[in-house]
């Protein structure tokens, strides 16, 4: 196929990179247990593809070709490593372990790479084993024994093939900081003995939650960027906002992947539905004036209907299984917000009922705050304000349980912001102004700040 | 991969001691399967003895070194396939319910020269 040369090859490699990076990396990581090595040879395999596909044509199954090539590179490197280690280790052994028994001095050249690793590296490629490898990689990257920041960065790097520089940019940290974070987390995988294996059944539930939590953090990171103006205040753009927003796309893609790999985990489907439904509203989150729009204020014609429909379809399917969980409930709430053509038709009674369920499931104060917002629509601002104050009173008790359930309200600008909105609706203007000012002191997002400033100005 | 399981008493976080299997059952399973290498309950902290050498002098002290409420009640050395395997074993220990277990992976210097083949692969940093 000599006609495949030039731009077609470049495109094919690019496509393969997006589709296959994670799979290729996962296959090598699982066979060797060495993520650094896997990263190196996966890059090498793509470089090899760029050269040889131009000459020999694009293979029928790029993923299989790349995996086989990466495995071959891995075998070569491991062999070389053994030779080098022998050279330096031989003298060290002579000096340090002269009295060691001959058995401990067994000739490593007899089994240069280790039989198990060699077998795994020469294993035939199949779609099922590729999925299995990928799932094992996801579980390893999201292992709860790793620090959360490291889990998120490593998941992104390993599953999308983003470079360290790209990951650093998306998380707004210097490249050196991100490089160090990734080195540390990979070292911890080695030293604590995390293997590239699907966890045993007894640990599966917790480990699936850990994976979903990482994906949702990733999504939120990107989705938050949609609530900020795309450019700087002076109208220029440096691409940072786009880089961050793309995280949400990546998270949706990964949620889709995990939902496919874990078909029997309702919460994996629930998370997919949730991110689809939220992401569908991205274009409407900030108005043309750069100010954040609340759900009620958003221009619904900007919502991406096909994505909402897909989210609802995923949700309906999983809810039919009757094994509810927090992501499914959150998705159900998002669906109720997405459905009506105008905010006035929102079914707040149903939403409030779902928040009650969610409070029972998580005990999270953030959820209770959102419940209070729904309560205001059902029972009026007075009742909602009492509910908000009740959260405040019990916050110390809630904090402990929140360690597992997520979210404490300590420095959360939405607590005073919600209270301010409710006080405004009750006509208690002075108190509302005080709460808006409190929220402004702790708000960190530019778009939210502008919204609060506008609300405060409207009071006068 | 070899791990030291530190079995901790956590009086500040007593957890729930119901629904636990007796320690004998756990030991039978873990040591019976070959995962357990050595382990025991330890005498309380007040029976501990400190040894340190300062300026060439051996200093022996009695009693606990620190005033932490958490204390090591026992230990087990286990050989596990990987961290998940170790977590599984630790999560079945009765003290994981009433106290806490700290898993410490071995560095495996191999100074005791035991000839366990697995040890060689464990740490290559």
From TrEMBL, chain A:
Residues 23-81 form the RNA polymerase sigma-70 region domain. It comes from the Bacteria. Residues 140-189 form the RNA polymerase sigma factor 70 region 4 type domain. Pfam families: DUF6596, Sigma70_r2, Sigma70_r4_2. Gene3D superfamilies: 1.10.1740.10, Tetratricopeptide repeat domain (1.25.40.10), Winged helix-like DNA-binding domain superfamily/Winged helix DNA-binding domain (1.10.10.10). Residues 100-112 have a biased composition (Low complexity). Residues 93-112 are annotated as: Disordered. Residues 207-317 form the DUF6596 domain. Keywords: Sigma factor, Transcription, Transcription regulation. InterPro entries: DUF6596 (IPR046531), RNA_pol_sigma70_r2 (IPR007627), RNA_pol_sigma70_r4_t2 (IPR013249), RNA_pol_sigma_r2 (IPR013325), RNA_pol_sigma_r3/r4-like (IPR013324), TPR-like_helical_dom_sf (IPR011990), WH-like_DNA-bd_sf (IPR036388). Belongs to the sigma-70 factor family. ECF subfamily. PANTHER family: BLL6612 PROTEIN, BLL6612 PROTEIN-RELATED. This is RNA polymerase subunit sigma-24. It comes from Myceligenerans pegani.
From TrEMBL, chain B:
It holds the Pfam family YCII. Residues 1-106 form the YCII-related domain. SUPFAM superfamilies: Dimeric alpha+beta barrel (SSF54909). InterPro entries: Dimeric_a/b-barrel, YCII. It comes from the Bacteria. Belongs to the YciI family. This is YCII-related domain-containing protein. The lineage of its organism: Bacteria, Bacillati, Actinomycetota, Actinomycetes, Micrococcales.
């Amino acid at each position: 196929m000599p006609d495949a040369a030039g731009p077609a090859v470049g495109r094919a490699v690019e496509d393969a990179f997006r589709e296959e990076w994670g799979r290729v990396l996962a296959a090598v990581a699982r066979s060797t247990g060495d993520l650094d090595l896997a990263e190196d040879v996966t890059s090498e395999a793509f470089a090899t593809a760029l050269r040889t596909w131009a000459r020999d044509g694009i293979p029928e199954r790029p993923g299989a070709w790349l995996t086989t090539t990466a495995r071959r590179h891995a075998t070569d490197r491991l062999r070389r490593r053994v030779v080098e280690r022998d050279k330096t280790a031989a003298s060290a052994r002579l000096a340090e372990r002269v009295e060691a028994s001959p058995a401990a001095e067994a000739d490593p050249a007899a089994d240069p790479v280790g039989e198990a690793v060699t077998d795994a590296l020469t294993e035939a490629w199949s779609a099922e084993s590729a999925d299995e490898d990928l799932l094992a990689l996801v579980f390893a990257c999201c292992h709860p024994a790793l620090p959360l920041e490291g889990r998120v960065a490593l998941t992104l790097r390993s599953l999308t093939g983003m470079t360290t520089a790209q990951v650093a940019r998306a998380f707004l940290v210097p490249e050196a900081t991100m490089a160090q974070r990734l080195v540390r987390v990979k070292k911890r995988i080695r030293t604590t003995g995390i293997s590239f294996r699907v966890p045993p059944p007894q640990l599966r539930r917790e480990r699936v939650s850990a994976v979903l939590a990482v994906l949702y953090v990733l999504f939120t990171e990107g989705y938050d960027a949609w609530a900020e103006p795309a450019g700087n205040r002076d109208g220029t753009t440096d691409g940072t906002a786009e880089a961050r927003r793309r995280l949400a796309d990546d998270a949706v893609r990964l949620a889709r992947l995990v939902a496919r790999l874990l078909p029997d985990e309702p919460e994996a489907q629930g998370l997919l539905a949730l991110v689809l439904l939220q992401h569908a509203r991205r274009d409407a989150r900030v108005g043309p004036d750069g100010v954040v729009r609340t759900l009620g204020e958003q221009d619904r014609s900007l919502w991406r209907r096909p994505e909402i429909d897909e989210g609802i379809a995923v949700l309906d399917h999983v809810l039919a299984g009757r094994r509810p969980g927090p992501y499914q409930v959150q998705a159900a709430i998002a669906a109720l917000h997405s459905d009506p053509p105008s905010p006035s038709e929102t079914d707040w009674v149903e939403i409030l009922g779902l928040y009650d369920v969610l409070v029972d499931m998580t005990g999270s104060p953030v959820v209770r705050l959102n419940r209070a917002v729904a309560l205001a629509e059902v029972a009026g601002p007075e009742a909602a304000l009492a509910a908000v104050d009740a959260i405040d009173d019990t916050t110390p008790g809630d904090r402990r349980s929140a360690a597992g359930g997520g979210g404490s309200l300590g420095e959360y600008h939405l607590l005073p912001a919600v209270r301010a909105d409710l006080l405004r609706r009750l006509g208690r203007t002075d108190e509302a102004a005080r709460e808006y000012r409190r929220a402004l002191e702790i708000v960190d997002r530019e778009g939210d700040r502008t919204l609060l400033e506008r609300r405060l100005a409207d009071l006068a | 991969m070899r791990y030291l399981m530190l079995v901790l008493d956590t009086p500040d976080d007593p957890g729930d001691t119901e629904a636990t299997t007796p320690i004998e059952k756990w030991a039978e399973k873990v040591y019976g399967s070959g995962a357990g290498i050595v382990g025991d309950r330890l005498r309380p902290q007040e029976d501990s003895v400190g040894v340190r050498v300062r300026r060439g002098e051996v200093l022996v002290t009695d009693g606990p070194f620190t005033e932490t409420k958490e204390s090591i009640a026992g230990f087990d050395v286990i050989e596990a396939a990987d961290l998940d395997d170790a977590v599984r074993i630790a999560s079945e220990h009765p003290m994981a319910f009433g106290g806490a277990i700290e898993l410490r992976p071995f560095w495996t210097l191999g100074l005791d020269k035991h000839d366990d083949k697995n040890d060689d692969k464990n740490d290559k940093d």
